[in-house]
Specification:
Strand order of the largest sheet: 3-2-1-4-5
Number of domains: 1
Order of helices and strands: EHHEHHEHHEE
Structural class: alpha/beta
Number of helices: 6
Distance between the termini: 18 Å
CATH topology: Rossmann fold
Strand content: 5-15%
CATH class: Alpha Beta
């Protein structure tokens, strides 16, 4: 299974929180593939602390990275609009991540499930 790692998971790994590094290593050993979306890379770099550059680049380079395509952009915009019509404001960044997972049939790994209320999304459970 290919797991799409959201920014929360990426930052946990980089900052050695919640034993995420070991958990991901076990998943890889079990045959899972780790990936992220290009927008997650941007979010990580936006919040990078001094001294984290080398470790961040090494970690992110080890992941498959899904770019934002026109199909993903259309789907993300449509999702955001549809939820706005229901009275729920969702971020475009989160909808790009959701659209990436949906377009490529990936399981999303995130600590912020409330930001992704889409019933069609497949989530990989976090402890």
């Amino acid at each position: 299974m290919i797991l799409l790692l959201d920014t929360t998971v990426l930052l946990d790994v980089l900052r050695a929180r919640q034993n995420r590094r070991s958990m991901l290593a076990e998943l890889v050993a079990g045959g899972h593939i780790l990936a992220t979306a290009a927008i997650n890379v941007g979010e990580v770099y936006a919040g990078m602390r001094i001294g984290e550059e080398t470790r961040t680049e090494a970690f992110l380079s080890s992941l498959d990275c899904y770019p934002m395509t026109a199909a993903i952009a259309r789907r993300a915009g449509s999702l955001k609009r549809a939820w706005a019509q229901k009275g729920k404001t969702l971020s475009l960044a989160d909808m790009i991540i959701a659209a990436t997972a949906l377009e490529h049939r990936l399981a999303l790994m995130t600590d912020n499930r409330k930001d992704f209320p889409l019933p069609e999304l497949n989530f990989y459970p976090l402890p």
